[in-house]
Amino acid sequence: MISTRILAGTVVLACGLAFTAVQAQAKDTDYRFELAGKPQSSAGKDIVQVRLLHVADGKPVPDAVIFESKTDMGPAGMDTMTAPVKALPAKGGVYRFEVDPGMAGTWALHLAAKVQGEPDTVRGTLNVDLVK
Question: Which of 15, 52, 117, 128 lies 20 to 30 angstroms, CA to CA, from 104?
């Protein structure tokens, strides 16, 4: 009977510690992407500059790994229209992308990143006005 109580107490304690550990981890909503200025146009392509910010303190995250970047014209009701995106080297915490839009308009830039020490993937979408 005592061993059953000890076992039950141990299980309750372990569950409580596990819950606390999960609560201590950051979520992907702790980060957000934002435009870093207006897109620059060059030879029919647009250079879009983006920052990844830690929401709690507003500081940029300079060492994230952005592993997915896609564009579409979803904001204009044409989400099947896509454009090629090429990641360029980051500079000072600003991530840069070269977009070759098929036409001028508002494009959605979809990004996915991994932040060191965080278990969740950070995802975000930015609406960007691009020119051809």
Answer: 52
pLDDT, residue 2, reads 54
Range of the domain at 122: 26-130
Contact at 8 Å (CB) between 64 and 122?
yes
CA angle 11, 16, 17 (to 5 degrees): 100
Query: Cα–Cα distance between 100 and 53 in angstroms, integer?
Result: 26
**At 86, which CATH number?**
2.60.40.3340
Residue 52, domain member (yes or no)? yes
- On whether the pTM is more than 0.70, the answer is yes
pLDDT at 60 over 50: yes
Give the closest residue to 68 by CA, choosing from 19, 109, 20, 15: 109
